[in-house]
Amino acid sequence: MQKPRAFLTLLLFMLACRSATTYDSHRMSAISQLYVHLVLALGEHDADYVDAYYGPPAWRVEVKAQKVSLAQIRADAVAVIDALQAMSRRGLLSGDRG
Predict the structure, then answer these.
(1) Could you read off the pLDDT of 8-34 as tens digits, one per residue?
(2) What is the pTM of this model?
């Protein structure tokens, strides 16, 4: 269970370290929502993973109903990281206001 936790910790770190400059807010919002769903999905596999959740109750219900496999969680996490890297390459996450 360490690898998914480390993987999602890295993802959270990438989100937290983004600069406050211009970025694609709609895309970032979608990525952030997917991240929360991934964390909730991991919580379905490891009861100790999510200490507390204060987001929309419907998201938790949705995740419980989906019963996402660990393999799918990993694939989705890779997709999120790829999307963040693509945004970074386009300068949407960097401090460059150029």
Answers:
(1) 666 666 666 655 444 556 767 788 888
(2) 0.65
Query: Domain range holding 85?
Result: 2-7+25-89
* Number of structural domains in the chain: 1
- Please list, residue by residue across 7-44, b when 16 or more beta carbons sit within 10 angstroms of its beta carbon and e when fewer do: bbeebeebeeebeeeebeeeebeebeebbbbbbbbbbb
pLDDT tens digit string along 71-94?
999 999 998 888 888 877 776 555
Q: Which residue, among 19, 15, 17, has the nearest Cα to 31 in the 3D structure? A: 15
20 in a structural domain? no
Hey, what are 13's tokens?
A: 């770190």
